[in-house]
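[Structure tokenization] protein backbone as discrete codes

[Encoding] learned vocabulary of local backbone shapes

[Begin record] amino acids and matching fold tokens:

___
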Amino acid sequence: MWEYPFGQQINARGEEDYAKCITPVDLRDHYKSYKHSSSSKQVKQVVRRNAKQVRDVVLTSWLPQRMDPHISSKNANFYLNTPKGGRNAILYVDFVYTQLIRHTYVLLHSLNVSKRKGKKFNFSKIFTYKYNYKPCEEHQVGKYLDHYNISSDLAGGAHFFTYSWAGKKKKKKKRETGKEIGEETEADAETDAETAQRGSKANFNMCIYLPTEKEVDILFIVQKLHKYFHFNLYVPITTEENSLFFFPFDLHNNLLVKHRFGIFVPYLYLHHCAEGGTNRGSSLHLNLSPSNLVTDTLYDFSFTERENIFFIPLLAYNNYGARVGSGKGYYDRALRQGGEEEEKKNVKVSLSLEVLLYEIDFLEPTDILLDYVVNERGVYHFVS
């Protein structure tokens, strides 16, 4: 069985120990007189093919779903010591996401992302991963649209999904008011979401992606960390002009439809296009910031100029801060569009696995460099 290097001590490690998980990688000398190789494009194509194969093996064999009848739970489990000396068995997928959540928390804390008062992160908690996209029934669609005063008649025959708010605690104990101790009610969550989304307490605009089943589930991680930080969220939209921009996103009240390449987008974007009589594959009807965030006031979302954190999907990365993506160059173009100074102001982060780290240089002239990569072993901070 593959064993994590400090797995036996993982629950004994506290916040001070986890703060050491950020490893600086000084690349200033490497890029001082850097010359791009003419073979980088070909190397990247090979890495992309290989990484897809590795990823598929990881998803099907190393991170099995909990109820998969073809895989023995004994072989799929990883054992962690509990503070009381016992042993807890968890699936690899739970272990990996627990580590990703812990390390992302440390990263956001180090970046001084605005924190919620009175919320202390529990570094011994094990998170049980669940893929939370769910089809939306007709009556549920109406509930989501009512929040934005949109008639459900305008939704047409689209197939709707939502990323469900997971992890609600079961009723254990009630105060005299009837509210459960330690549980956030739907009303509380809605108020928090509205406050954070309007940006009254968030100090960063955070651009995430709506993950497919073959990508690290950033929504699950953000969902768990929403309890500790104020988030002002945006998600990417690809256009028919082969550009990318970022549309506001409500973590609690989201209604999604599949768009280009089968990737989910907020229905509010398509509704806005329809209302304006604009092609849904275009961004020409929207005002954008230099980093391509929507600046228009839409529904109950409003834009505030702040520093940006971009969580960028990838297939593979290397120890020089470069990444391999889908090969279409959307993020490279979008984040370079505002110029070098604007690009430097943006914090660029990717979530991945250690097994997808390649010790080979494949940087092309048009590629952006990552500032951080978070994986199950820690955080790489690339200083270039």
In short: The domain at 3-166+199-276+284-380 is CATH 3.40.50.10420 (Rossmann fold). The longest strand covers residues 233-238.
